[in-house]
Amino acid sequence: MEDSALSNVKVLDSSWYIAGPYCTKLLADYGADVIKVEKPGEGDPARRIGPFFNDDRNLEKSGLFLHLNTNKRGITLNLKSAEGKRIFKEMVKKVDIVVESFSPRVMPGLGLGYKVLEKINPKIIMTSISNFGQTGPYRDFKASEIVEYAMGGEMYSSGIAEREPLKLGGNVGQYQAGTMAAVATLGAFYGVDLQGEGQHIDISIMETEAGDADRRSTHIMGYLAAGVITNRWVPPREAARIMIMPSGVYPCKDGFINTLSMPTWFPRYVKALGMPELKDDPRFQNVYNSETAPEFDAIWYNWLADHTKQEVFEACMEAKIASAPVNNAEDVVNYSHLKDREYFSEIEHPVTGRITYTGAPFKLSESPWQLRSPAPLLGQHNEEIYTRILGYDKKDLAKLKERGVI
Amino acid sequence: MARLPLEGVRIVGMPVVIAGPFATMLLADMGAEVILSESIQHFPPVTRGAFSRPPQFIVPTTGGGMIGGTGGLSTYYDHWAGSRPWDRYVMFNNLGRNELSCCIDLTRPKGVDVFKRLIKKSDVFLESNRPGSIDKLGITYESLKEVKPDIIHINMPALGSTGRHSQGALFGAQLQALAGHTWLTRYPDLDYTTTQSFIFHADACAGATAAFAVLCALHYRKRTGKGQHIDLSQLETVIPHLGEAIMDYTMNHRVQEPLGNRDANMAPQGVYRCYGDDRWVVITVDSDKAWQGLCRGMGNPEWGKEERFSTVKGRMENHDEIDRFIEEWTSRHDNYEVMWILQKEGVAAGPVLDGRDATHDPHLAYRGFFEIAKHRETGVHLYPGISWKMSKTPLKIRKAAPCLGEDNDYVFKKVIGMSDAEIKELEKEQIIGGDEYVEGAGALQL
Fold it and tell me: Where are the beta strands (DSSP E) in B196-285?
């Protein structure tokens, strides 16, 4: 096996849903040995969330779960049973990192809080991911993607004026919390040698959003530095123009494109549109002339109507204009540039067969990303882990199973 | 005092716009010494402002700014660009905390020589230039390896360093479109042209993933002694954040469509108008139990008892009607009040916070999320703080963002070890040093 960046790192992962599993997916995909702990019989609730392979609601067929848990080994363990807790603590001795994403009272309530784990393994890094953090007035609050985006994120200025605020598509806030948790976890682990001991990391999804560079923190800062409250704006078509060149989302022959303009880019538009005569057009000599902007729009809209989003993209790439098609999932999977980079990856899964997965978020020259194994079946690695790592024999396993521990 | 996790790691950065600066910010927060390599001859657009000396008419005085309403993004402190606008640009100062700045003109061989001496004393070089462009200055991974064999070099352009579109320079908005995220973010009754959002997840995602990439390489180096090159395509960091939509296509050949503020599995979910001007609350009912909780919170109205609303299927089918009932109730209440009422009943609910609300939110305040920092040119302000808590090495804003060239002395004298005479000589030629842009400074054209 090729040496991976995190080949020597061992992680015990009792997290569920999206944020925690994405954190440990990043670690696992770059080589860490991640042991995922799930509830016997039920597993990670993400197994019950779609989309499902062939729309069959089966615990082993959730696309969300399959995506989030590649390269991990899976065991089942009942953390509520005394035996389960004992086994969990036993495993804490053998790993570097524990990641969990229960609500804040759960791990301490089980007797598995940081204070306990730290005594078992002083070098342990424990990362706790929760909706609002381990402390504070909201710590027991429930949340969802939209609640986190409303409170922590920049929902207030998302969407257009005169309409309600709009959520970003998908579950990106939770994914981002997982990404930030991975940064904090690996950073803290790097520091264990300096400190001589581990520590507890408290990830609040609300705060990962509030401190985020998706403009939330900058917009908050706009208020703190200049009293600016960033609000929802009119659509670009109706907005006051500062430049004659377009910025925003525009319709084209077969869909939509997003484009952005810098003040010096008029010659680039001339090139992209293939209309050299515009270069000397007296109407467009001052790019800040908002009165002639509609006349440029007329040319631009007409040109767009004759070109597909892919054609617009290619022409703008050629002319060095920041412009891109509004792609759907099919377009993304078939995007030629991603094929050049061999981005998507396939792997065989015992229940779904061969499926295409998203690939490496970055390419390391010496210690590459690898799709070594698909997400684990529920309890798939029980025998391997309980016998090889913890030294149980098959008879012990049968007993544990009987008592509902695993 | 406890040593910070990344103490002793030195990072030379040429990050631009948002994603790169976010990556270096996260590493600096954890204690890495991040030195920004800037220059007085070259102004990085959209990083330290739109222009080095912006005409006052583009300095926004309201929630909007140039390029169609970018709000806080294009703001200067107190709406005043001043004589040193690059030191007063809110976005840069927000992301540049805990970092240092020095000025080196990389377009001249003597500058490249100084730069390499800095690399020799460093662990990581992070940049987001178009792939291959910086080669023209004689700065390549290979040439950096010659002076520092275990250097980690990360380039994080929009589309990566190989492939047919690798030269494409895109911003967050276009990456969102390309990755399939814009497709999923839309009011269901309007088309994409009217669904303008200036919030680009790509910047946050690519920045955080780049910080993670650097940490992976640092770990690998610690274990093997080897540095490496990291090819990060910002686009490729975003696509995994949309995993379920991608999987639906690869598994089922289904293209997911936007849901607006609703959810595919839970109902009702939405944003509801509250008492006041442009005040909103969001609510997610994730189970039948939560539905009962919502009804209790609203005072058990008659309509809430209807059989057809008792299952998620029924609530999905009658979503519009339920939304009207809920809004009739929320519109009589303050959005925070709705949150407290419903959370007590076990329902996920929360107010939509604008920039001002967030700074006054009791929970963020309780957790000490906001911190005070003093900046040489702009004075004392509150800033959004560190995004997570570490129990033994508490992180904080140790210093405000650097003014241009603020740390020239430290970098050239202490880090590189240049003599005063040499510094004086190179400063005279404007190879190094300085703290204000020369007239007409524009982007580094590579």
Answer: 228-231, 269-273, 280-284
User: Is B348 in Cβ contact with A142 (below 8 Å)?
Assistant: yes
Separation of alpha carbons A155 and A206, rounded Å: 12
Give the Cα separation of A37 and A100 in Å (integer): 10
For A10-214+341-402, CATH number? 3.40.50.10540
Indicate if B374 and B300 belong to the same structural domain: no
Helix intervals (H) in B62-124:
66-69, 90-95, 109-120
Distance CA A226, CA A217 (A): 14
Chain-chain contact of B201 with A168 (C-beta, under 8 angstroms): yes
- Per-residue pLDDT for B88 more than 50? yes
* Crossing angle of the two packed helices A172-190 and B201-224, in degrees rounded to 10: 30
Task: Assess contact for B291 and B283: CB atoms under 8 A.
Answer: no
Class of domain A236-326: alpha beta
Q: What is the pLDDT of residues B303-328, one digit of tens each?
A: 999 999 999 999 999 999 999 999 99
Distance CA B22, CA B203 (A): 8
Closest residue in B to A26 (Cα) is: B212
A337 close contact with B: CB closer than 8 A: yes
Does some domain include residue B341?
A: yes
Alpha carbons A406 and A395: distance in angstroms, whole number: 13
Domain of residue B83: give its range. 10-232+366-428
Beta strand pairing call for A248-252 and A255-260:
antiparallel
Domain ranges of chain A: 10-214+341-402, 236-326
